[in-house]
Task: structure prediction
Amino acid sequence: MAVVLTKDQARADYVTRAVVLGRGWTRTALGRFMAEPDATMPDLRYRGSPPIRLYAMKRVSAVEETREWQEWYRASRRRRAASARAGAGVVGEPACGAGGLAQAGAPGASSGERVGVARDAGSGRGRGSNREVA
Result:
């Protein structure tokens, strides 16, 4: 069971889920290696939101030093690199190799020209704008 902390208590020895994810963890790894948070703290910014999950930095470091976590991390890095090379996981990008840019020497294409990508009619005009841009 997680302990409920105040903001001042949490600053010293605990980190948020975002910090742990920034260290190379994934949500799945958090569930696998650290099933429950060590502490929680009320979210003072949004009253109705769930409590902030906090993880003891000592525990995070201890898990990262285990052989099982290091093997998982190396495999995760390999998967991420392979995914990046294959172009997988990029939502909304065309399937061509240049990410929508015309290939050099392609008939009728100058360098840097976008191919097959429609211009957003409301770009730069604020949220929900659908005015046509001339």
In short: The chain has two domains: 3-86, 93-134. Residues 93-103 have pLDDT under 50 and may be disordered. The radius of gyration is 23 Å.
